[in-house]
Amino acid sequence: MTGENYAGSFIDIKGNDCYVHDNTGYRNGNPKIVAAFEIHEQVQGWGYHQVFENNTLYMDQPYGAENTNRRMYVVDGWFSDFTVKSNQVDYGEGLVPADKKYHYNCDNVSIIQEPLTF
């Protein structure tokens, strides 16, 4: 997470059809981390159809805070399409469901809402 080839996220994804689930990430004030997960198109046609489910992310500063060069997205994959379900994020004020489009840098994100159970 530091050094010459540091990562800007906890996990960088470069393939297709990846299932990223049940992870816990702690930013711990690391200014290099600007998104929990990033999707990259290393080769044309790659970086599509990911699923992110049941991840808990402690980003430790507010979404869009001044001392970051971009928003603290849960998933940054602006060119891609992906599905999210049951992720949680803490921007320094406690865990909340990451169930809004503004948590994700993508116009083609599908947010799956779980049905309420009683």
Model description:
This protein has strands at 9-13, 19-21, 24-26, 35-39, 50-53, 56-58, 73-76, 82-85, 88-90, 95-97, 104-105, 109-112. The relative contact order is 0.21. It is built from no helices and 12 strands. The chain has one domain (9-112). Strand 9 (88-90) and strand 10 (95-97) form a beta hairpin. The termini are far apart. It has a 4-stranded parallel β-sheet, with no helix packed on it. A 4-stranded parallel β-sheet has the order 2-5-8-12, with no helix packed on it.
What is the gist of this entry?
With 118 residues, this protein is an all-beta fold. The protein has no helices and twelve strands.
Strand content: 35-45%
User: For the residues shown, what is the average pLDDT?
Assistant: 87
Q: Characterize the biggest β-sheet.
A: 4 strands, parallel
Radius of gyration, whole Å: 14 Å
Helix share bin: under 10%
Straight-line distance between termini: 42 Å
Structural class: mainly beta
Q: Using DSSP, what is the number of strands?
A: 12
Uncertain segments: none
Count, helices: 0
Widest beta sheet: strand line-up:
1-4-7-11
**What quaternary form is this?**
single chain
Large-scale geometry = globular
Number of separate structural domains:
1
Q: What string gives the helices and strands in order?
A: EEEEEEEEEEEE
